[in-house]
Amino acid sequence: MKALRFYQQRTVRLETVPMPTIETVDDVIVRIKAAGICGSDVSRYAKLGPHQAGITFGHEGGGVVVARGTNVTAIEVGDHVAICPSQPCQTCQACLRGQYSQCDQMLVLGAQLPGVFADYVCVPQKMLIPIPQTMPFDELAFVEPTAVVLHGLLKTELRPGSTVAVIGCGTIGLLAIQWARIFGAKMIHAFDIDQMKLQLATTVGAHQTYQSQEATTTLAAFQQQTNTAGVDLVIEASGSPVATEQAFAYAKRGGELLLLGIPYADVTLHRSFFEKIMRHELTIKGSWHSMSAPFPGQAYHTSIHFLNRQQLKVAPLITHRIGLSDLPAMFERIVSDKEIVGKVIIYPE
What is the spatial distance between Cα 216 and Cα 231, in angstroms, rounded to a whole number? Predict the structure, then answer.
């Protein structure tokens, strides 16, 4: 079969590798029907390099079951499945508390385990979630990032009537806008430096958008819209160190900040923002991965429910549909920053 192997920073190769085989009674082999490039994949490719040289890359996706071990009873050959890409150890203190996202021995597809940028992948049955066969394969690539956002939002006080600001309108930010709408937010502000992404933000439910290239001007426009009050919940989804600092400016007194974006440079915090944490009694919450008890957790099943009902609209987020052979060039196109690339869906066939 074909698989995209990740060797070092900016070095991936499409290679012919052996088909995976059933090695334990709990194993399931899935033929990948659709996979997605995650922002963390791009950061790994461009800046950090692989966890293991030569690993098959990719962690977002799913497909059709083609083989299963003798102990697999909940999943049949022919079932359509989404893949939870993380495999917690189930034995550390965090896992024993059901906090699987905090497992300190976690294995992840595309990092420590062979990933989904391939024709087939073999995973334990516990990492698979059956999906309705009516659900388009494209949406398989969105189950995990959708669950990542919901996992974070479930930590907050978001409720009907809340006001929300979403900073960064990539895939995570655009999904956060839609979840905020589903939760019943009455006003959703969206921030990004790119106008096309802001147009998408409006399409999926943002009420007000801001092209945030200059912090002072953007803050003034935002304060005019909110009468300087700020919002109940700020969701930082860009990972930009500058945007992460500015997020504190948008929270109301007693408000919340949810950090979903991963910064790959130091984040500095002006003294006035640090004081605001105390003086305005802000609550800051981080969120990591997407899992909870019972594994893989509520966020996955709820995400599949809303995706299948078309209440989460992901088609507008897709800008490119490619084959496995196109992946090396696509990574270079993304990191060259010469064009806006939204969600990229890969079809191995």
Answer: 17
